[in-house]
Amino acid sequence: MRKIIIDTDTGSDDAVALVMALRDPSVRVLAFTTVSGNINVDQATYNALQSIEYANTYKPPVYKGIARPLCFESENASQVHGIDGMGDVGFRAPTQKEESEHAVDALIRIIGAGEGDIELITIGPLTNIAVAMLQAPEVMRKIPHITIMGGANFFSNPHTPCAEFNIMADPDAAAIVCNFGVPFTMVTLEACQVNGAPLTDEEIDQTRAAGETAAFCMDCNCTTYDLAEKVYGYRELELPDPVTYAVFSNPDLIKTSFPAETHVERGGTFTRGTTVFRKKKTIFEERDLKINSTIVTEVYGQAYKAFQYDLIKD
Ligand code: BDR
Ligand code: CA
């Protein structure tokens, strides 16, 4: 069974990914660590506990992490996820409490005690992970692989003209993680937007009817699909973090990916937070590329949605 830690800025699509992980028989979640991003870190922590409550399986510890990006403040995404990050629905309060240990300390302690077999999935800004890497590099090098929801490959609709939210929210942290030396898979924003990956109006309703947990997974995303209706004129639901979790659990769901030397733009007047995916060296370069990542740009949409539905339905 694969052992995982998920680092999350728990807003509404994170919540679905957390539920999927807790209901996935092929993994054991050792911990959830939280970070500021979609919403402030206190609310993200509460939302993670609430997701555990509604997953209705086992209860991994939840550790609260860093409250702000490394260098510059960043806006949250309440216009996409609601004031509480969970669609402002008013779900019941979780029974579980957060742990007193800090997320960064917990990451270092748990990974340090492992045998190099604990994988990391990140579905928020990379602040906690970067700080843990700076604080305990030998320990963090034990991580065999990181699956990151982040980055944009420029052929769709990132959050700014150049950047996807998780990277844009803390580009300095993302740059540290990319340069650190642990190989990673980056599931880009496009992967949840193309090839039928968004849930249709009908699929949202079908899923909502599949039990309390599935209804929670849809209803907490109501701000997101209402926004889609306002912007596109029809209701649909893009779920970047669940797509990322699905790809982690079942790589056969990947339709298009490529190896790259990935960097994050930390400066730039308009381009801070841009992910730069280098696929081949220029004719002027002598050094070979240092491939550090696999970039996922497309999944098999119907297969991903079936995988997700099977995990969250009762
Ligand atoms: C990412 O930002 C947030 O809106 C989602 O939770 C996801 O992690 C997508 O760009
Ligand atoms: Ca997220």
From TrEMBL:
Pfam families: IU_nuc_hydro (PF01156)
Coiled-coil ranges from the UniProt annotation: none
Inosine/uridine-preferring nucleoside hydrolase domain: residues covered: 4-304
InterPro entries assigned to the protein according to its UniProt record, in alphabetical order: I/U_nuclsd_hydro_CS, Inosine/uridine_hydrolase_dom, IUN_hydrolase, Ribo_hydro-like
GO MF term set: hydrolase activity, hydrolyzing N-glycosyl compounds
Alphabetically ordered keywords of this record: Glycosidase, Hydrolase
Descriptive protein name: Purine nucleosidase
